[in-house]
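Dear colleague,

Following up on yesterday's call, I've attached the two folding results inline so they're easy to grep. Please treat them as preliminary; we haven't cross-checked anything against experimental data yet. The first protein's sequence and structure tokens come first.
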Amino acid sequence: MLEEPFTHEQYLDSFREFINSEENKENIEKIGADVVLFGHNHLQSYAYCGNTLVINPGSCGQPLDFDPSAAYTVLEITDDGLAVHERRAVYDVEGVIRRAMESDMYGKGYLWMDMVFMAIKNGRDYFGFLFEIAREITASKGESGHFFSNETWVEAHKMFKAIYV
């Protein structure tokens, strides 16, 4: 799902299967809650695991499901129980990027912000590609580890832009 667009239904099917795997089912049951909220993967989703509703409300600004509109979720308590309403909102992505590029932060973190800008324009996760390039650079220098020098990041960013931009 990192390489090409997928439907929300395809992702939900995969998410439901993952959430209900034996290992996850056991861990979710240990939490002992009616509703579990989580985030960080930027993919809006929800599923029941037994009686527990598991929700990732989405990402207002950097969804990674090939849809750049902001994703958010409304959880409603009804007479019949809980109702999940997934929503999307179109916003001025180019305007947000323009304002961000005018900030002091852009001058200090342009490399990472360029990656974020690409992600919010396309709704695609490019970060893994940048990390892979950085790992290849360090390996070619005989270096190892998870922390890369600023020079490696700059070199990786240049190579990334030559390939993906």
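Below is the second protein, in the same order (sequence, then structure):
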Amino acid sequence: MDPTPRVTLIAGHGIEGNASVGGKRHVTVLSLERWREVERSLGRTISPSARRANVLVSGIDLADARGKLLRLGSARIAVRGETRPCEQMDEASSGLRAALSPPWAGGLFGEVAVGGVIAIGDPASWDDGVAHQEGSV
């Protein structure tokens, strides 16, 4: 996972240039606040890239998001489920898999419903017509 200041999301496809496209896992999203909780539980700082998610958001709770529409800048992600940790997490950092095991701690995955370019600092919010929690990419 290489950090980049902006990416293009393509509707029905995924991230432009990504080796893994299609299916229901176009994009994986991780919450910075949940990641910090994981770090505290492990007693050490770990780069979020160890989680291997595509997008890191801040200020928005991703829990229980299945079926919701996540707005990232001008793009929309149809949330299909919770990203569960695999054995690669312990290869990245000892104990990381267990630390990511609480519900939704590993983030979410979804399909790109509306494409667009997203960049660091773009707004992130739930697209449900209700004015509430807003964060950023």
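For the second protein, one point worth flagging: The mean pLDDT is 90.

Best wishes,
A.L.
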